[in-house]
């Protein structure tokens, strides 16, 4: 409600009680809470509604043979959007370059954040919630990013229409209205056109829109990287997380400190996918090598790690 007021999409007085707010947003009828309210803000009843689920995975390579990371979250739509964006931040590389006259490196996102957010929001507000077994899915491969949504595109909309002028058709108008009030979407059917324009401005191919069986698919063809981790045999791409770890370890840091710098939530994933491979590659070293498990253990960047940072555009 505060966000809706701040962007000018909620005018006039609103009661302070929860029933008043739900009535104002059209999410309660004759004193009964509607399912749209559950999708947007529900907590207690969500275990009984598998539709309110987000599935996320980072796969090794270009197929679904091996997981590098995966998560399944059931929650209200705004929470799912937040989790999807955090997952992208964790696994997208951040190509960088040094800009003359600037002290910091200039980072260029893999996919324009506003474009990625638009597609994720569309998946949440346009999915067919009558399909109980479906979910919104985010799949990250080495060569592409896919967003899947249960149900085909809204009636009257074809995949081919989404890259040109087309009408705005809302499958779930109550859910869409609340997202509109927060400023996350428009109502003029321009969202996918804006995504196409943002990708072209960033030098990327526009996303592919398709229907695959009873599901809608949006796929970005982007170079995510060979893997999300470093190996001793392969010179890895210096992803945003790897760069942050190596930069932080220019002075000795603890494991927890490096994990926070990498902005990775899962402790074991950080250990297996970043800390151990960086040590194996010779980019990080122990400060107490004779006692790897020491509580006083710290990690620092090696000369090879500094060279990797330079090759990745970090000085």
Overview of this structure, please?
By secondary structure, the protein is α+β, with helices and mostly antiparallel strands. It has two domains: 43-221, Heat Shock Protein 90 (2-Layer Sandwich), CATH 3.30.565; 240-311, Winged helix-like DNA-binding domain superfamily/Winged helix DNA-binding domain (Arc Repressor Mutant, subunit A). The protein has helices at 2-6, 18-24, 35-41, 77-91, 113-126, 173-181, 191-201, 240-248, 255-262, 267-280, 303-311; strands at 28-29, 32-33, 53-59, 67-74, 96-98, 105-107, 136-140, 144-150, 208-212, 215-221, 284-286, 299-301. Helix 4 (77-91) packs antiparallel against helix 5, helix 8 (240-248) runs antiparallel to helix 9 (255-262) and helix 9 (255-262) crosses helix 10 (267-280). It is globular and about 70 Å long. The relative contact order is 0.12.
Give the helix/strand layout.
Elements: H1 2-6, H2 18-24, E1 28-29, E2 32-33, H3 35-41, E3 53-59, E4 67-74, H4 77-91, E5 96-98, E6 105-107, H5 113-126, E7 136-140, E8 144-150, H6 173-181, H7 191-201, E9 208-212, E10 215-221, H8 240-248, H9 255-262, H10 267-280, E11 284-286, E12 299-301, H11 303-311
Parallel strand pairs: 3-7
Antiparallel strand pairs: 1-2, 3-4, 5-6, 7-8, 8-10, 9-10, 11-12
Helix pairs in contact: 4-5, 5-7, 8-9, 9-10
| Low-confidence region ranges | 227-237
> What is the β-strand count?
12
Total count of domains? 2
Structural class: alpha+beta
Number of helices: 11
Task: Order the strands across the largest sheet as they lie in space.
Answer: 4-3-7-8-10-9
Structural shape: globular
**Judging by the overall fold, what is the CATH architecture of the largest domain?**
2-Layer Sandwich
In helices, the fraction of residues equals 25-40%
Strand content: 15-25%
CATH class of the largest domain: Alpha Beta
Question: Can you tell me the CATH topology of the largest domain?
Answer: Heat Shock Protein 90
Please outline the major beta sheet: 6 strands, mixed
End-to-end Cα distance, whole Å, is 44 Å
Overall mean confidence score, pLDDT: 84
Gyration radius, to the nearest Å?
22 Å
> What is the helix/strand order?
HHEEHEEHEEHEEHHEEHHHEEH
């Amino acid at each position: 409600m505060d966000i809706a007021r701040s962007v000018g999409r909620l005018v006039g007085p609103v009661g302070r009680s929860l029933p008043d707010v739900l009535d104002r947003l059209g999410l309660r009828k004759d004193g009964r809470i509607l399912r749209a309210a559950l999708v947007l803000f529900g907590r207690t009843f969500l275990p009984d509604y598998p539709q309110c689920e987000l599935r996320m995975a980072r796969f090794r390579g270009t197929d679904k043979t091996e997981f590098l990371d995966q998560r399944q979250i059931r929650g209200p739509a705004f929470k799912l959007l937040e989790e999807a964006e955090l997952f992208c931040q964790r696994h997208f590389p951040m190509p960088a370059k040094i800009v003359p006259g600037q002290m910091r490196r200039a980072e260029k996102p893999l996919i324009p954040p506003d474009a990625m957010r638009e597609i994720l929001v569309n998946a949440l507000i346009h999915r067919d919630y009558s399909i109980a077994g479906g979910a919104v899915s985010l799949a990250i491969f080495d060569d592409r990013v896919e967003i899947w949504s249960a149900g085909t595109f809204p009636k009257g909309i074809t995949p081919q229409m989404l890259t040109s002028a087309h009408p705005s058709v809302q499958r779930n108008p109550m859910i869409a209205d609340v997202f509109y009030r927060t400023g996350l979407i428009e109502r003029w059917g321009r969202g996918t056109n804006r995504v196409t324009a943002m990708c072209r401005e960033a030098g990327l191919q526009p996303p592919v829109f398709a229907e695959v069986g009873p599901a809608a698919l949006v796929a970005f063809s982007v170079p995510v990287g060979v893997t999300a981790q470093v190996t001793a045999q392969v010179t890895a791409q210096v992803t945003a997380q790897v760069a942050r770890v190596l930069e932080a370890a220019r002075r000795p840091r603890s494991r927890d400190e490096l994990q926070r710098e990498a902005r990775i939530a899962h402790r074991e994933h950080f250990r297996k996918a970043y800390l151990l491979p960086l040590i194996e590659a010779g980019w990080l070293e122990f400060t107490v090598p004779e006692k790897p498990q020491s509580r006083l253990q710290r990690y620092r960047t090696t000369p090879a790690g500094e060279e990797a940072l330079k090759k990745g555009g970090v000085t």
